[in-house]
User: What shape does this take?
Amino acid sequence: MSKTTRREALTLAAWAAAGRLPLLGASATPAGASPVQGWLAGAAPGEGSAPARTLRYAVLRWTETDPKTAVTKNAEIGRLELAMDRQGDQTRVRVVQTTKYSQPHNRIEAEILCRRDPLLSLQSWKLTSTIEQRADCRYEASGRVEGHEVRLSDGLSERSFPVDGPLVCPWTLPFSTSAHAELPERFALLDELLLYKPDQRLRREASVSLPYRDGERKMSCWSQRGTGVLPLHYFADDQGRCQLVTQSALAWALQEAE
Assistant: This one.
């Protein structure tokens, strides 16, 4: 999920110290959701089927905060669709993500084959990344888990490395962090199916209330911390739909489930 550079991380830390970024929030908004509290005030939770096989999210980016009210402004910079299909003892997840941080749009398509366990741990995957109007910016990669080893290839080079415990992708975690799931506490992360980040810890927190436009909605909350990631929070409603995922200045907000 993270696109935050080292410079951006230092900038965010400076803003937080100056009180400009609502990491803790001046209101009663839960800490993990405070960077999108302004967006929540004008939005409704995503609706649709539960349990859901397809989740469609708006990708949000925090842009500024009113220093007096701590109300945030969040720009929609893209869309994310996650589609899950269970087949026997395996689960297939298809990903389409389009984002625009500046010019132009980046489109990522991926197909992930997972074990049918609570964390949807990875078995194999393929990923294609393209930039609009740039035929020379097509990137393809694939990978697989063999025993306790990960193998990655992009057509130019291959690499492998050991993995300890389940290997998980951020695009599959919204299906895992449902309101009623019981999940292993520790796992390894393959961010965007390319960047390995070991020693991740997932903890179920106390339930919280998110202040949407039509009133507060009670949510289950998971927090994730670990090597190489800024803290993440997952908020799921009582029907098991992951409504919101936040990480620093970025967020995924559910629009539709089916």
User: Anything to note?
Assistant: Residues 185 and 202 are 5 Å apart (CA to CA). The helical segments are 6-18, 37-41, 173-176. The chain has three helices and 16 strands.
